[in-house]
Amino acid sequence: MGVFLIHVLNALLYSSVLFLIAGGLSLIYGVMRILNLAHGNLYAVGAFVTAWVIGWAIEAGAPTALLFLLLPTGALAAAAVGAVIERTLLRPFYKRPEEYQLLMTFGLLMILEDLIRLVWGPNPLSATTVYAALGSLSIAGDRYPTYNLVIIAVGVIAAVFLWAFIYRTRFGVLLRATSQDKRMASALGVNVNRIYIQAFTLGCFMAGLGGAIVVPSQSAVLGMGVDALVLAFIVVVIGGLGSLEGALAGALIVGVVREVGITLFPEIELAVLYLIAALVLLVRPAGLFGRASA
Amino acid sequence: MSLLTTRALSKSFGENRAVNAVDFKVEQGEVLALIGSNGAGKTTLVNLVSGLVRPDTGQIIFEDQDVTNQSSYERIKAGIARSFQIVSLFDQLSCSDNVALSIFSREGKTLKLATLASRDRAVWDEAHDVLRRFDLDRHAEIPAGAISHGERKLLDVAVAYALRPKLLFLDEPTSGVSTREKAPIMDIVTSIVRAGGITVVIIEHDMDIVFRYSERIVVMHQGSILADGTPDAIRQNDAVTTTLIGTHPTGEAAFASADDARR
Amino acid sequence: MNKALAVSEVHSPWRILAWVVPAALLLIAAPFVIDPFQTLTLMYGLIAAIGALGFNLLLGYTGLLSFGHSAFFGAGAYTVAFLVKYLKIASMELFLAGSVLVSALISVLFGYVCVRYTRIFFGILTLALSQVLWSLAFKFFWVTGGSDGLRVPTPTLLGAAPTDDKMEFLAHKYYYYVLAVFAICVFLMWVIVHSPFGKALQAIRDNETRAEFIGIRIRRYRLIAFVISGIFTGVAGALWAPLNGLASPDVLVWTFSGEIVFMTVLGGFRTFIGPIIGAIAFTYLKTYAVGFTVYWQLLLGAVLVVLVLVLPTGIMGAVERLWSRLKRRN
């Protein structure tokens, strides 16, 4: 029973991080119809910035409690990078065919990969102090890292907050209106450009937050962005591009399948995920919660 | 036997009954105009017959064969072709390419990948001949996206014509074209289809064109056929003039009855 | 609709020969004029060109952007590696035949699924499917060598065993073999895109509804194009494996698919030779970038961004624009 509970927690843990990344990707696509291939790199930026800031703070002798407050810095950094990217590189492509956007974001992926290397070097950065600081608690006889529960908590809070934001605030209404019919929204006086930059920044913030909260439990390494992107892809394919519920459902499915996979069949776990994604695309191309395909 | 018959053909989009149990007949060799206000169901009817859209209920019979469940590909092979209301061409290909594609397709040659298209002189000669008939041969090597709107409307018809169909639907062949260009376009189109013995159904809004070029007029209104007859008969049909043109023999009551009829 | 249109290509035999003859002479003379390292780079470029040529049948001529072509390249490469390791075969001809078969099989499978969709969904699906292959290559390491890959020794060419001096063999004998296959592939693809089938593909690209309404069954044609495309790229992978000496998952990962897209767009996807030019240019660009700085990805990424922003029709697009401007001056 205890072991089962731990597996459940592990699955939730993975799902939480995936939801943040994939949710951001899906949000951006839903509002702007842009599939950002560099989205994973913003997750990486979040991880690297947080690890770096925490590392610096530790050297400066900061108390552990403060370190926790510094966790979100990665998310804010990712949001800032996102805002800059949207304004300078994405905006020229809104009126062009979506294939060009895809190409541009691929170039961006290459640029960001190396910028991360340029700034932080080829070695991994970690923030294990934070991870260790919370110790572990006993779950049905086994020790389980307490920090993992923090990650799950952040994921849940983010999901709730996002839902409230999208469905209960005025901004959320504008977001949904723009995503359904950009021209109509514009005709009704919505500043579409501002919605776009806000949506994009929010999406990048989510990805960065995913990186920020995960980095204490696993280091920030080069290439983590590219790996994360493909996983996020699987999530949105299963759940439906452009749907937040879909990102949640997809993240949970992927988290569970992965946990089952690495426990029972470690070799094919990744392949199974891709296959499931391909199968879903075959049967229900819009994903579980997605709209009819573009 | 009519060339085309529909029986109780219906199609709804959500709440909107676009085509409502329509019995529509087209006779061999005639030039028929299909008119009606926007939303009357004309384009939907054409979409149903050409296979772009599947009906909810009803039958479509072409040359005594039930084509209701056939794909658009099969219907084209059977002899039904159409042009499009919003010009629909292969813009990056030349005008002769556009027409030649219809011919290659008609002859079943489009799967040949080991021979050069330019070598099939018969196809290109026919393509140039078609372009000449539509007065477009000077644009043969020019991309279809680069010619004027009126010329594109003609090319759109030419591409459908090159399929040598038995039944040709022209969806607003003169829409968006300046008034003085309309008659020349229609002259070309009608003379060509008459010479080829092709049965034509034209969707049109311009009443001058309708009365001048068609032998039979079918009037649709809110998904049903309102009237069907010769241009003279239609001109004198009160129901038609009321709903379409909004006039009534006794002036004042005009708007009232028009609204009643529409409801 | 863009009225300043796609470049139409003039097929007068003289104009074509004016390009082809000098290029052919240069390529034939290359190994005697440049040093072996340069020859190898050129070979990588020619091989990439075959792959890009295949890729562009889908993009430039059918209007489908695939982000999964690494699957076919990798399939070709790993077919060679498996033939060597498990069947002890060393014949290049059998390598090519095997790769054609395997990539045809995979592309029929993948294509059948993918051609129901267009645009972004098509791209995502091709990416997901290619990643299946990548993850299989990674995970089943006892079969595929995992991240270390499988060694591929020099093959026999037309029955002739390779000479002892590997460099000499690669830079001369193997070079001419690759050049010959390249020439054949270019010729075949040229015929295909100028055939009635090629025209039908372009019709589908320009207006799929109208193509349907002149009697073209678009899904079937897209599938055929997909398979041809996959075979060409598979052949490229097969030629690559002995040159590289190793078949590794690096050529199955999706970012490699991105490179194939990159090089095609670099050269210009709206022309026939654009992908060839782009592939060779990209190969040189990457080789020098990698040698120049450890941040070569940054360099290449910046090139791509600028390319898409400023020069979306690629090198050949710019050349054609320049040419027509010069013609207008006279």
Explain this structure to me?
- The complex is a heterotrimer of chains A (294), B (263) and C (330).
- Chain A is mainly α and 294 residues long.
- Chain A has a domain at 23-223.
- Helix content of chain A is 75%, strand content 3%.
- Chain A contains 13 helices and 2 strands.
- Chain A has helices at 2-32, 39-59, 64-69, 73-90, 98-120, 128-133, 146-168, 170-180, 182-187, 192-214, 224-239, 244-264, 269-283; strands at residues 136-139, 142-145.
- A two-stranded antiparallel sheet of chain A has the order 1-2.
- The longest helix of chain A has 31 residues, at 2-32.
- The radius of gyration of chain A is 19 Å and the shape is globular.
- Chain B is an alpha/beta fold.
- Chain B is built from 10 helices and 10 strands.
- The longest helix of chain B is centred in the C-terminal third of the chain and has 17 residues, at 179-195.
- The relative contact order of chain B is 0.16.
- In chain C, helix 3 packs across helix 10 (218-244), helix 11 packs parallel to helix 14 and helix 12 runs antiparallel to helix 13 (296-310).
- With 330 residues, chain C is mostly helical.
- The chains are: A mainly alpha (294), B alpha/beta (263), C mainly alpha (330).
- Chains in contact: A-C, B-C.
Quick summary of this structure?
Chain A has 294 residues and is mostly helical.
Task: List key phrases describing it.
heterotrimer, A: 294 residues, mainly alpha, two-stranded antiparallel sheet, 13 helices, 3% strand, C: 330 residues, ABC transporter involved in vitamin B12 uptake, BtuC, two-stranded antiparallel ribbon, 75% helix, globular, disordered N terminus
